[in-house]
Amino acid sequence: FAGLSLYFEDGHDDLDDFGFDDYGSECDGIRITAFLDAGQDNLTPLGRLEKYAFSENVFNRQIVARGLLDVLREFSDNENDFISVMETVARMSEDGEPTVRAELMEQVPNIAMFLHESQPNFPAAFSRYLVPIVVRYLTDPNNQVRKTSQAALLVLLEQGLICKGDMETKVCPVLLDLTEPSSDDDYKIEAVAIMCKLVTMLSKDTVEHLLLLRFCELCSDARLFQVRKVCAANFGEFCSIVGQDATEKLLMSKFFDLCSDSLWGIRKACAECFMIVSNSTSPGVRRTKLSPLFISLISDQSRWVRQAAFQSLGRFISTFANPSSTGLYFKEDGTLLEVPRCPFDRLGDSPLSIESSMRCSFNGPTERPSHPPIKQDGRSTPTLECMSGGDRGSDSTHTPPRGRHEVQERNNNPPTNNEETEQTDENFNSFHYWRPPLPDISEELEMLKDQVPLQNQAAGIKEGEKEEMVVLEDGEIEAKEEMASLKPVTSSQIQKVLDCLQPHMDDPDNVIPQQLLDQYLSMTDPARAQTVDTEIAKHCAFSLPGVALTLGQQNWHCLKDTYETLATDVQWKVRRTLAFSIHELAVILGDQLTAADLVPIFNGFLKDLDEVRIGVLKHLYDFLKLLHAEKRREYLYQLQEFMVTDNSRNWRFRYELAEQLILIIELYSHYDVYDYLRQIALTLCSDKVSEVRWISYKLVVEILQKMYACGAHDLGLNFINELIVRFCHCPKWVGRQAFAFICQAIVEEDCMPMDQFAQHLLPSLLSLSSDPVANVRVLVAKALRQSVMEKAYFKEPGSAYSDELEETVMALQADKDRDVRFFASQDPNMALMDTAALI
């Protein structure tokens, strides 16, 4: 076996006939498949694999287990050899040494991914050879092996490598056996934990059919509090998966028991998952059952339970929000979106995707709110789709920023009258199409009936009218019509109904239970910080947009004082939290309340600590776009203040300012941009930090594009001359290099007509081709070769600049610097090399 070659980082290159014995644990540099190489034993590679896989030396077996992925790569081309290796792996899994089994299990996810990518018969091979190993190791007597198999199982599920059949017939039965009442305590606790982690990766049918009833039993495990605690911590995930019906029928009683458990840790876990459980119940259950239960947790004798409950209070209140009435909703990532309102043309039209603040408007006479569909888990989620069809256009109410909002639309063929396309729906109406059932306002209409005879008398009902009034025995009035035509309802009658409904709509107790609101408002009480949590005000501030969304604009007065108290809190973390979310609150409140109540607080944040100001700055565009033009213009004078920071080394603050200014440009006229934003941009271009300069060059390009897009060529020319003086003639090479970059960006973004570029900027750019600094010439070469010369204007026959460009590029191709020659000679169609490091 002397011919066996092994490779080490330290230069050793041979090994004796006894395998890996002499190298101990210092074998990380070994080419693990080296034992397959030919040697004096005259064995085939598969025979050599057998020899070391079942060697009496434990270390040899560990090395083979660790290198199984490389072994499979060696034999993957031959089907028979591949099967032989897989059978060897199956036999190795029965090794009596725990370290070998653990090593093998660590490789299973990698092996599974390799097989999935390279083997056409992956599902069969994986299910036959590897899944049984993972399942068997879940009951391994060694703790390390069990933990490794649990981790491997989660990875395999996350990657979608285990099929539903294997989960239902191989994995779940083992978990059910391990969670039997008679099972060993350690095994049972581990199995419950792994089952709760798996539930989020399984289908609803699998969870309901196999795991739900066992989970209910485990929630009531009287002997092991660890089991109940794991169940409580993962209760929300089970509710989300199985949906509303199963939650209310089977899980709700268990949740009540866990919330009243004798151990505070279990009650605390319930408080932490309360929002998820609430999302899986109906509004009636949420109000009548969960609200009193939450009040009991918020009044718990344990401070830790009260602390968790107060932290979850705002999120629980947010589950009472009704997107159809608020017109807004939060996505799972926390983004606030508007529920689009637009009509349906017919069932089956293509969806019109609506992003963020985009709204759907149309020329028709009515609007219909887009109501949320019901998920499998029973929760309603507002849809982001509205149907567009017919001759109705869908337009944005304002121009969205480039790259932030996109509207995608497809036109379908007009509907046909084929019987196959006709569909019936109990909620279908020829005028409203598929509308939600109308609310019951019979009680309000009762108040109008006594006024009907008086109105009829005043109008003088004539004899012979088609409509006659019949008084029934119960005192009601029925209108009989000969032609089944209804008398139109007057606007005054509609207003009276709305007047009857409005007090109930405006009452916050009709939105959320008063006790919950009172508890939330008390979170700013200084006494709470002493008895519950020193950071309770921060949690109140964090969840305030969700509570405001739930209450709606009409009930903002309930939160106004609380918001103002938080905005003046002595803890900067509380003010910082509000600063990061004030733009979302502005969307919820609308322009009038924003101008009256939020703008003064916003102005205060502008003068606060940098830790608070950064929250305002990160969403400056989002807030300013919600203001009226006159109010928005007032902030032009304050943008310069962002250039001053508490710590001059806080360059990320200036970087964020440049990013926001790129977006803000569209909110102002080109005159305002030239007068106010231009100077800030030029100052940022001279920043000491290259990252700030890099983003600021893009800002300069956007400003120039604004000038020419608005037809302000004179302002654009003035700006160009300023760029030439400030950058092209800059005594520092960094400035001259910046000019080359700006020129390239101007050409690539088509910021101005190419004839204007050739006349005003190109001569200065060409003059830098002989700059004494190579880094400047590199960017000049890149700008000319990759951008300028690729424009059709400069390729046209007889172009006045083509000869000069060719001569300059040829000179750069002969430059003494290697990098300059490379970029001057590079094919523009090739992948462009990043030169950011040069700036």
How does the SSE layout of this entry go?
Blueprint: H1 45-53, H2 58-66, H3 68-75, H4 79-92, H5 98-118, H6 122-137, H7 143-158, H8 164-178, H9 185-198, H10 204-219, H11 225-233, H12 235-259, H13 264-272, H14 274-279, H15 283-298, H16 303-318, H17 323-326, E1 328-330, E2 336-338, E3 351-353, E4 385-387, E5 428-429, E6 433-434, H18 442-449, H19 452-459, E7 468-471, E8 477-480, H20 491-506, H21 514-521, H22 526-531, H23 536-551, H24 557-567, H25 572-606, H26 610-618, H27 620-624, H28 629-633, H29 651-664, H30 670-685, H31 690-709, H32 713-728, H33 733-748, H34 754-760, H35 762-767, H36 774-786, H37 792-795, H38 802-813, H39 818-825
Antiparallel strand pairs: 1-2, 3-4, 5-6, 7-8
Helix pairs in contact: 1-4, 2-5, 3-4, 3-5, 4-6, 5-6, 5-7, 6-8, 8-9, 8-10, 9-11, 10-12, 11-12, 11-13, 12-13, 13-16, 16-21, 16-23, 23-25, 24-25, 25-26, 26-29, 29-31, 30-31, 31-32, 31-33, 32-33, 33-36, 36-38, 36-39, 38-39
